[in-house]
Amino acid sequence: xxYLLILFIIINLYSIEVQKPKVYDKQKHEINGWLMSExxxxxxxxxxxxxxxxxxxxxxxxxxxxxxxxxxxxxDGELWIKRNNFENIQNIVLDTNPSESWKQITYNIFExxxxxxxxxERLEKIDIYLKNKPNKNIKIxxxxxxxxxxxxxxxxxxxxxxxxxxxxxxxxxxxxxxGRSDEILKxxxxxxxxxxxxxxxxxxxxxxxxxxxxxNEIIFNLGGGFxxxxxxxxxxxxxxxxxxxxxxxxxxxPKFASFLRVRKEE
Length: 266
Fold this sequence. Notes:
Blueprint: H1 2-14, E1 19-23, E2 35-39, E3 43-47, E4 52-53, H2 64-67, E5 75-80, H3 86-93, E6 106-111, H4 119-132, E7 138-140, E8 144-145, H5 149-161, E9 166-170, E10 179-187, E11 191-203, E12 206-214, E13 219-222, H6 228-232, E14 240-245, E15 258-263
Parallel strand pairs: 1-10, 6-7
Antiparallel strand pairs: 2-8, 2-9, 3-4, 3-5, 5-6, 9-10, 11-12, 11-14, 12-13, 14-15
């Protein structure tokens, strides 16, 4: 019992409170005048002024040359290379022995935590820093003023056609906050989630689908989205997999679920 208590304290000691978006609801949310930006499909990274950490509080083993001229204040952003390249980024960033492949990566900033002022004023802090100390490893994600819902829809369509993941749209008028909030929203054509592989289904000795347990303990079969190579070597039992879907059935199972990738622990 004492060991479990110590473990709980350690986990919470190193956990990082960050902003978390809710899902955009066209009927519910009024977003005129908000700021929208591309949702980059990379590894989220929190800079505490000394080191980079994943959203779960695990230290990222970035090369010293990569973070050498980072500021001494906090940053929140995405380690990213290009669109539709998540598995490559994941392998590079989560490798405990940083490789030369880090030269492909940039740190793309979407928030400056714990700075007073509205969203624009917070981003201005890193903008001023980079003007005084240019750094090719740090970029600020461009923000676009959203005129209305039609503008949001057209921008989403433009990004989807470029194989982007979606949009983050944010109320620019409020102070910094942490946790999940209606003041920051993710906008995508589909939803995605993660589950644990607990088994495999085979037919005539050929892999047919994964048996996946969702976070809410509901179990479903995931058979779509696999390449021929992945069908020959499917994710293993115990792996965490990310899948996309379009709503839920009346039984709480994801509709039209399709495999995206194996998710490593961050």
